[in-house]
Fold:
Amino acid sequence: MSEDLPLSLKMKMYSKYLKMLKEKEVRDREEVKSPKDIVLEHVVDERARELLRQAEEQYPEATNYAISVIAELIKQGVIKEIDGELMLALLNRLGVPVRPEVRIRFVKRGGREVSLKEYLED
Structure:
């Protein structure tokens, strides 16, 4: 059957075939992203990144599981973006009881932030 086709049509079909192969390679490379990369792409504030880093330090194995679950939720379209509050809720719900660092700061006149110790000394 392919012998019946003219040479120009064969060339056109072959070029389309090569184009489809290149597109498939590009899609395969995009799908190789790690779950952590997928999660970090959807993080919108620094607090969420900090919580993720602290969770990895405190509970590395449980955090890997939680990251894979969060990445799957992102792929399914359930989660669009992740802020600090959502990250803390997700981690706690998935069994990673991360303890965020709490900083109490006071704003003095002039907009200067001071710690609790400095505030009480004045």
